[in-house]
Design goal:
Blueprint lengths: L2 H12 L2 H53 L16 H7 L5 H6 L6 E4 L6 E4 L4
Antiparallel strand pairs: 1-2
């Protein structure tokens, strides 16, 4: 048999009901798969669409909460204190010399560091 005879014989055998049944079954399976995918995508779109208002409401609530969190302060009436005027306060401060300051801490190693008028007392020992 020639190759062309074999092809024609095969075409005659498969051209009948088997080939058409195979094609029909294949088409139906493909259509079922495509419908399933379309249905899944549709459900996914609906869920996403339903979630958008919820996400918007959540964002609004969180933004509102952050803005209003700083406004919650307890306001109370301040206690009335009598503050002496600066002139009276200065009159009560007694300025001492460096030697008098060192005399307040006998037996300790001290130093005054800084510019005159802005000096700081530093203890050099570890007591």
């Amino acid at each position: 048999m020639k190759p062309s005879d074999q092809d024609s014989l095969l075409n005659e055998i498969l051209a009948d009901d088997e080939l058409s049944a195979f094609r029909q079954a294949s088409l139906e399976r493909g259509l079922t798969a495509i419908r399933r995918l379309r249905s899944q995508r549709s459900v996914l779109r609906r869920c996403a669409l339903a979630a958008l208002p919820l996400l918007g409401a959540l964002a609004f609530f969180l933004h509102w909460k952050v803005q209003n969190s700083g406004r919650r302060m307890i306001v109370s009436k301040p206690a009335r204190e009598v503050v002496p005027s600066p002139s009276r306060e200065i009159a009560r401060v007694r300025f001492i010399s460096d030697e008098e300051l060192f005399a307040l801490f006998p037996g300790r190693s001290l130093a005054l560091i800084g510019k005159p008028g802005e000096q700081q007392l530093v203890f050099l020992d570890q007591n």
